[in-house]
Design brief:
Length: about 220
């Protein structure tokens, strides 16, 4: 089921718990099969993030992401390329603090697409939540991760800060989150998480996604 309006996309985002980020190859797996398994297990968003990929690489992979998302009523997000959102049919774009400013990103993708933003400090968390251009934000990295070389871990304290105050926008914990670390992250107040290797390196991505999602949903019930 394809989500085509801003209202549909944001409703899906509000209900999301598990967000998968992977490259154009699925880390060497059969990309379509991998995405289908992860989404079947409970991932709500899939982000195509390929820092080394050129435009052609991204455009070749995008239909696979789009088809997988459509099959499961999920969201397809493109990393750091608002200029390719329309061409890829993505539901939105995720940008970092050093990428295109969110006002320009919103202008580039229009009002019906989702815009996500990375945050790494309490001030950035609060600023992201206050900006109408931002539909969601990611908080981290909680732990050091090779997907963000040179970015120091922020620890659990930033998750606690984000959870301490009711937020306008949905937010996701990010950074080294897997089966062994999702429990403390959820206990700190996160009900949503972004994962990479927890699924791309999993022997059974569907089962791994289901277990991660169950931990996050249990936090919703506790809250």
């Amino acid at each position: 089921m394809s989500l085509t309006t801003g209202t549909e996309r944001r409703a899906r985002l509000a209900a999301a718990h598990l967000y998968l980020v992977c490259d154009a190859t699925g880390d060497g797996r059969d990309l379509a099969a991998f995405l289908d398994a992860a989404l079947r297990g409970g991932a709500d968003l899939v982000q195509l993030r390929d820092k080394d990929g050129d435009d052609a690489t991204i455009l070749r992979a995008a239909p696979v992401f789009r088809a997988a998302a459509d099959a499961h009523g999920a969201l397809f997000i493109l990393n750091d390329r608002p200029d390719l959102v329309a061409a890829t049919g993505a539901d939105g774009v995720h940008v970092g603090q050093d990428d295109l400013p969110v006002a320009q990103t919103r202008a580039a993708v229009g009002p019906d697409r989702i815009v996500g933003l990375s945050t790494h400090t309490p001030a950035q968390v609060d600023a992201a939540d206050a900006r109408d251009e931002v539909d969601y934000f990611a908080v981290g990295p909680v732990h050091a991760t090779p997907t963000k070389p040179g970015r120091p871990a922020v620890g659990i304290e930033l998750i606690e800060h984000a959870a301490r105050t009711p937020r306008r926008a949905p937010w996701f914990a990010i950074g080294g989150i897997d089966a062994s670390t999702v429990g403390p992250v959820a206990a700190a107040g996160a009900t949503r998480a972004v994962v990479v290797r927890a699924l791309t390196a999993a022997a059974d991505p569907e089962a791994s996604a289901r277990a991660l999602r169950a931990t996050l949903e249990a936090r919703v019930g506790a809250a």
